[in-house]
Amino acid sequence: MNQPFTAAPHDDILVWLIQLAVLLFTARLLGSLMTRWGQPPVLGEIMAGIVIGPSLLSGLFPALGIWLIPQNAVQGYLLEQTALIGAMFMLLFTGLEIDVGLIRRYARTAISTAVGGLIVPFTLGFMLSEFVIPDEVLPNPDQRLVFSLFLATAMSISALPVIAKVLLDINALRRDIGQTVIASVMIDDLTAWTVLSIVVGLASGAALSVLGIASSIISVIGFILFSIFVGRWVVMHALDFAQNRLHGRDMVLSIVVVLMFTWGAISHSLHIEAIIGSFFMGILLGQTAKLSEDVIHKLEGIALAVFTPIFFATAGLKVDVGLLLEPVLFGLTLIIIFVAMFGKIVGAYIGARFIAKQDHWTALSFGVSLSARGAVEIIIATIGLSAGVLSQEVFSMIVVMAIVTSLVAPPMIRWAYSRVPVSPEEEARLRREALLEDNLIANVHRVLVPVRMRHAEVSAIQMIEASLLKRLGANTDMAITLMTIATPETKAQATAYLTELSKLFGTQRINRKVSVSSNPTDAILDEAARNYDLMVLGAPQQGSRTDVLFTPMVDLLIRLAPCPTMVIHSPDLPDNWSPQRMLVPTNGSIAARRAAEVGFALAAGTEEVDNSEQATEVHVLKVVEDETYQVILATHDSNRQVLIAYQIVNELAVLGESFGVRVIPDVVSSPEYVHAILEHARTCKIDLIILGISVRTGSHRLYLGPRVERILHEAPCPVVIINTVTGTAPANSDHTAQARAAEAAEQAIPPR
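The structure assignment produced for this chain is given below.
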């Protein structure tokens, strides 16, 4: 008969809640102090547990310790599992930062470093256990071989969460050396955990056999292959399901956490630590899904602001320095610390320096990075204690070793990394990544394209949409949702139409969605609110109505869209239109910069999509509106306004050239702003004009200003408008009067 589902006792839950509050507060407080002193906050988070634990406060004031340290198994389980969640979140977030392509590029160095970092500390740890550790501190002297294998394995494992946190704190995780270190730690830990599972099996009485060893190795390899081949499919479809089918706030975030726990459960079921599973899920999400910045920031808040500090503080809480004050035990502790650090540093150094042929400082940086043990070592020590392999004294020694190496490693890592030069190639990559952090197109991964069902062939604007989106998606992972509105009677016809239309987009990932709704505006806005990064709208030729810029529905969608919008306005086009020369007028605003980013992305993607030998170029134009500046421009006078104009276009030129785009910056003087832009477009035979705007929702009419509207009306080529100011319309809202008026007016306008 199954036991009834019951909660933990009231007193145990009370103690647990107090522990969480005190640990989190102290960890963040000491972490803040460490940050102020120029040290990684992880040091303060570990020290928080030491200060609160039996080494200080709880040891000096036992009555206080009753509330701060678990006093029974239930309290221990509650705090341990909370700390485990912190470790899993930390590893998930770390996995998101992993660049698999970069690791593959430096595979030789990573493997060489890992091999050295395994063999040397394992050998030294085994010799220490066999010849130095006395029988008096062994739980069972008759099983010294098992003890020696366990301690040697423990010496070989690094603390991936600690190392990753330190690299994050010193802003080195994205460096080549940081990525290689993470790859080395992965190889180290997967191998060591496999050996550890064998040793634990021996401790439980299992025989050391070829079959048992093979079973453990197959489990690890099988989990990796399962993650690579099945995990990518699971991640892609799970997130598509959350984004396209589920309703509610933060559904993608919830699915990410579900995937993290699922992969942790899978790895744990294979006797691989759950944190390894969450780490692999982070890699899968980072390489497959390209999560939105909003989801990333929320994950970062959960991982680095709440659970991770509790995880590190809990590690420090387990240290009781008082047990090791006896001279013999104190001496053994120092020996274990020395062997652990010396073995890792020397082993990794030998592998990197003499096998991978790295320079001295780079090899030393690998060594000091892998020397940190942290809470992972404490987890291993706990496993050994519960399995009867370790005594309480040796357990305390390993815990102290883990804490000391975690405290010593960050300043050593900072010191060593500061002496590793940044190559020009790496510097260019890091600069490019920094630019991409705030780049509109680089962060666009889900695009919504509402279209009107047509009975004839696709329109010119729809062909432009497909052409531009293929270029935008050439260098980024982009999923496009084609959406149309239908009635129950026309749903099958609409589905067939979207299937035919999707052929224009080539090999891009296309989702097709037919919405049956009597309120198309609401249906489109509600869909756009489902974590889309961009909505692309095709706008027909301007009509004669003075209250509408494009059409009532398009105008309303632009004003109320909950995500950035790209509006395509085009006259009739010649066959095989391909934008080779693009013009971006700029005034130095953020909106103009976003337009330039779109232009650079289009130019960068043109060659890959079209295989065109003709160079694609982006003209960045600043118009100085004063005819008296003709003389100033001709004489290159250092007038402040002209200098600012050149600074604006040159800054965008540098941005474009960093992406390998040919940029032509230009400053012209004219009393007529629009005339200067249109004249430049005609003279330079521009194929596409890109305008950045900032639309607010305060007015009941879409108003872009006379300049933009005149460019739309008189431009000799298609015009793309980029609006990054999102509307305020909530999902599942009824826009009532505005929507119904727009839809009623729309009926009188021929479909595009």
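Interim note for the steering committee: The first strand starts at residue 446 and ends at 450. The longest helix spans residues 210-244.
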